[in-house]
Specification:
The complex is a heterodimer of chains A (103) and B (401).
Chain A: E1 4-7, E2 15-18, E3 27-31, E4 37-41, E5 51-53, E6 62-65, E7 68-73, E8 82-83, E9 88-89
Parallel strand pairs in A: 1-3
Antiparallel strand pairs in A: 1-2, 2-5, 3-4, 5-8, 6-7, 7-9
Chain B: E1 3-8, E2 14-15, E3 19-24, H1 30-38, E4 44-46, H2 56-71, E5 75-82, H3 94-102, E6 108-112, H4 113-116, H5 119-137, E7 142-146, E8 151-157, H6 161-180, E9 184-187, H7 197-201, H8 207-226, H9 238-242, H10 248-255, E10 266-269, E11 278-283, H11 291-298, E12 302-307, E13 330-334, H12 337-342, E14 349-350, H13 353-357, H14 361-376
Parallel strand pairs in B: 3-4, 3-5, 5-6, 8-9, 8-12, 9-11, 10-11, 12-13, 13-14
Antiparallel strand pairs in B: 1-2, 1-7
Helix pairs in contact in B: 1-5, 2-3, 2-11, 6-10, 6-14
The chains are: A mainly beta (103), B alpha/beta (401).
Chain lengths: 103, 401
Amino acid sequence: MEGRKAILLHEKDNVANLIEDAETGDTILIIKPSGEIGIIQALDSIPFGFKIAVREIKKGEWLLKYGQTIGLASKAISIGDMVHVHNIEGIRGRGDRQEEKNE
Amino acid sequence: MNEIHGFVRSDGSVGIRNHILVISATRTVNVLAALVARNIRGAKCFIAGDEDGRCKQDRETIARVMFGLGKNSNVGAVLVVSNKIDGGYPEFNPNYMAEEIAKSGKPVDVLILEKEGGFYNALGEGIKKARRLSVKSSHARRELVDFGSLVLGVKCGMSDATSGIIGNPTLGFVVDRLIERGGTAFFSETTEVIGAEHIVAQRFPSDVERERFLSAVTMVDEEAKRTGEDIRTINPIPANIEAGLSTLEEKSLGAISKSGSKPISGVLKYAERPKNPGLYFVDSWMSSTSLFLGYAASGANLIIFQMGGQGLPPQEPIVPSISTGFVAPILYVTGNPRTYEKASSEIDFNSGRGIVSGEKPEDIAEDLFETILETSSGTLTKAETLDYQDPVEVYLTGPCL
């Protein structure tokens, strides 16, 4: 199957990491921990090492990688969207925020 | 094979190098220490910066670095240089420093400017003393010893996604192996545990040490918030963000795997020497200009710098720090095959081959382990071959008064 490879590190994760550069429209092969391959389409150009959403994610929902939370979605995210600083917010160490969200 | 050829010191510790070290015990003799060292082939000279106007805690930290470097098993002989026998801050008393270092069994001497009758006399006498120390130190011979004699310091830097996927996990398997064989390893970078501390905390069998760890992380978290700045403008660093890491939590979760999976014996202060072998968390700033110096003072023989590097320039970049382990060489490894390709003249090991081949970190770790055995037995790291010493900083947190 032709496509750009991405690695899903944990079954619970809603993002995978590209290990090849991908252009908008490319087929992405999501290599899961079980060895199974999932297929999605890239909605953005996503370089090597960047993240792609493998599930629909609502604004305010937790992003999961390594089976752990890595931040909150600051916008709604579609399957195939790049996930990075424009749509994910880290929660810890935020001196710029008045209140801290509880985990 | 689980053995290396190391220098067995009389205190039982094993060194993988045999350096001559000149320590400037007070800033007023930095130039004397430096000029003595400059005249001795291969000598290293440690200069701390200004100890004046520093609070007790910071002075103790600086002294810990000096004592620790002197005691490091990679050091074959030490010359302590100072202005006067008495006077100055008590932490840096040259005779006390020399006596403590000499307990490790290595040849130690002291050079006092006042005693020699001034700078130029002291310079001549210092060169004489250091040459004698150099010959004495060269009597040391390498012997076959178990890999478990080693003390390793690990750090990840210029992190990108490969750090968490393959680079750090591969290193973690090697750390596990060292701890299993009774060795010692340090990991650190307190800021970069934020977001993953709950996972690391579970690995402390001691409640007291676990609390110390969590307090250390809380303190850095509070300090980050007190700046009033968004931590994301500080850490992850620009190189991380340009490489695709989006949050501190994501970076930390990828970083902790370099410490392996073994129980953590305790928390050390910066430059503190552990009393027993084991795996330790060092509460410290992550910068490689100061952390590796701290590791060496804690007793590290070898530093492993696990790089991401996706954010580095595309042609022949250089690595962040040259010889900031001071007496402990730095082995550069990367989990990013693209980084290895562009910087292969600087990087010693490519675990990033697994990104291309699908090899698992556990299997790649076998080869990294072999590389570490060779480096410990005398094979030079690429960074060591440069006749250049990057400036080092002692990690200090107190006010300058």
